């Protein structure tokens, strides 16, 4: 798809109404002009972006289990967290890895960046792989309760089937790890 194809679908913002400003997200309603000249409303969640880490230790993946209130259940996920304003992506990934798992890494490599829910949110998530791990110190936030565990690829696949792993970033990480194990390199 070239630039002219993208332009034929673009929407022009006519008015923005802030609705909510929170600690992590904000919500705004935009009135837009559609490609056909009509107008419509768009509810948009603004998010600072996040990092996530596929951390490999002795042929196992580090995961954290924590309760996710929007889902009403506990989930098993790779370590992840939101970006602070102006924060370097590599530093953020290293920070989140140690804060949630208690491990540091000598090597961080970018795998992919993707939008989590582009229909209503601008959050972009940067996925990294961490290898050559060494013990550090867990530093959980005051409102953060989780447990860290190392699981095999087969255990991760089983957790996906059981929907205990059901978030996009962790599923993407598991599939990237599976490709790595099959081919010897991570997908480009």
From TrEMBL:
Domain of life the protein comes from: Bacteria
PROSITE patterns named in the record: NUDIX, NUDIX_BOX
Xref: PANTHER family: NUDIX HYDROLASE DOMAIN-CONTAINING PROTEIN (PTHR11839:SF18), UDP/ADP-SUGAR PYROPHOSPHATASE (PTHR11839)
Record keywords, A-Z: Hydrolase
Name listed for the protein in its UniProt record: NUDIX hydrolase
Domain Nudix hydrolase: 45-180
Segment forming the signal sequence: none
Co-factor(s): Mg(2+)
GO molecular function, one term: pyrophosphatase activity
Presence of keyword Hydrolase: yes
GO terms, biological process: nucleoside phosphate metabolic process; ribose phosphate metabolic process
GO cellular component terms, A-Z: cytosol
Pfam families the UniProt entry points to: NUDIX (PF00293)
Family membership noted in the UniProt record: Belongs to the Nudix hydrolase family.
